[in-house]
């Protein structure tokens, strides 16, 4: 049987390969602590669960309008207006079965046959995969470590041309935990206006920040008209399996995404939407508790990881990931790269993490080696895991820093 040539471009997420390996090691009886998964270890708030159950019991189990039930679109508009400090109405809001479908629909609506789309590398791997699926040209941009993994607007300008249709940004960022500075956002907005292209602003970690403000590019003058904000209930309310995301953008774009929903999944599960209304109405306290706990874990990871020989880690400002430079650890252990280091940690220390290529291809062999550590796990497990890493690195260290001149 023949497949569409388009399918040759479709990738999977390397993270899922790691998760499969973790599961099979656990089935063999191995004790593996997973700091790989990007999923909160909290339960969905009780009142949100109850709202979902009540909706099922009230037979809210039929189709809903494709862009979402009015109640939720209104709540979403209120939430975005307050949190992003720019006014949205219900017609600007869209509900979908997760943030991922909104990335898919957004790119489908914005890209033409000759499109170029820029996205962060390292970054959420789905961006590249979907751009390639739609036969556009993927244009990865870097996030310089020396700038705290902020975007360099000069690089974006140098990678922009008249074929650029979309710039994807993600703040707070997966996997580096960085937050894009206001100054960078202002420059990015200027470039987008000059070249007249769309911004997809992936803000699924908007509420998960530890001190500094997170700004949305949509709040800058003129940007609401060219930005699709993508948000999700997955991380903020520990609802990954409910499958519900939400977004905001100019009405014409939202109408087009609504049509894409009609033509693909019809709508988001109706009772899930009723649960989401409750999450938006009452979720403030839950969010605060989660952020307080994540901040403690962030501090723990940052403090303990930097004590491991050969590992250097910047303080994550948001999301629940630490992105650690393991170049020296690889050298100490005689390992080629972070992918080998990840295998070493999994098999020798019983700790699962992800490595650079899980977040896109490297720009050059000279790039430093990185792993991502998720702190969506208990403080106890995080401490145990980092202790194991420290011990195994020390035991196996060959004490030679042959490539250290690269740093
Ligand atoms: C940056 C980013 N965007 C989008 C998503 C997908 O979220 P959802 O579960 O709402 O599809 C994730 C999930 O890991 C993510 O890290």
UniProtKB/TrEMBL annotation:
- Protein name, entry field: Aminotransferase
Q: Which family does it belong to?
A: Belongs to the class-I pyridoxal-phosphate-dependent aminotransferase family.
| EC number in record | 2.6.1.-
Which sequence ranges are marked TM in the entry? none
Q: Which domain of life is it from?
A: Bacteria
Transferase found in the keyword field: yes
Q: Which UniProt keywords apply?
A: Aminotransferase, Pyridoxal phosphate, Transferase
The answer to whether keyword Transferase applies is yes
The family database entries (Pfam families) matched by this protein are listed as:
Aminotran_1_2
- Give a GO biological-process term: amino acid metabolic process
Cofactor dependence is on: pyridoxal 5'-phosphate
Q: Which InterPro entries match?
A: Aminotransferase_I/II_large, AspAT/PAT-like, NHTrfase_class1_PyrdxlP-BS, PyrdxlP-dep_Trfase, PyrdxlP-dep_Trfase_major, PyrdxlP-dep_Trfase_small
**Record's signal peptide:** none
- Example GO molecular function: transaminase activity
Ranges of residues in domain Aminotransferase class I/classII large: 30-389
Q: What class of enzyme is it?
A: transferase
